[in-house]
Each structure stands twice: as structure tokens, then as C-alpha cells.
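Encoded backbone
================
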Amino acid sequence: MFQPERLATIGFAARRRPNGLVASVMWIAGMIAAVAAMAVGAVLAVFTAAAVAVIALFAGVLVFLAGLAMRARRNLAPRRRAGDPDVIEAHKVDGTWVAYGWERHGR
């Protein structure tokens, strides 16, 4: 059978509540603990916000420097000439000059 009386004693409500001076001391101790927990939480939140700000600052500097590097790389890249047909390219390979571009297609 179901006996509600036995189950009614389980939980926080079944405990005896202190009366008098002990109750007020426990209430004050609970308030002090709650205020201390909130203060610690606030300090940790400030440290977390400062860490996020520093990480964002370093990320911004990194992106800025990467942009400068990409712009410098783009500016220093050799520019292809719009092709003078009389100019050929030659490289020295094993002591011999090898020329490219002198073959004309269609002849």
C-alpha cells in the first residue's frame, strides 16, 4: 500500500528549524556567505572580461600585421610585362644558357 506519512518526512521541510539566537546567527552567516560568493563572482567576472579584452586586442594586432604582410607581399611580387614579343627569357642551366620564348607558334 501507499503510505504518504512515511514519504512526507523526506526532504528539507522535515528537518527541524532552529529557533531563537541560533536561527538569527545562521541567517546572518548565510547572508555573509551569499555576499562573499557574489563578491568572488564579480571579481572573477572582471578578470574574465579583462582576459577577453586582451585576447581581442592581440587578435586585432595579429590581423592588422597579417594585412600589412599581405599588402607588402602583393607589392613586392614581380610584375609580368605585358609582353614585348622580341624579348625572350633565358636561364643558366649547368653552365649553358637556355632560352625560352623564342619559338613562335604557327610558323
User: Anything to note?
Assistant: The longest helix spans residues 21-76.
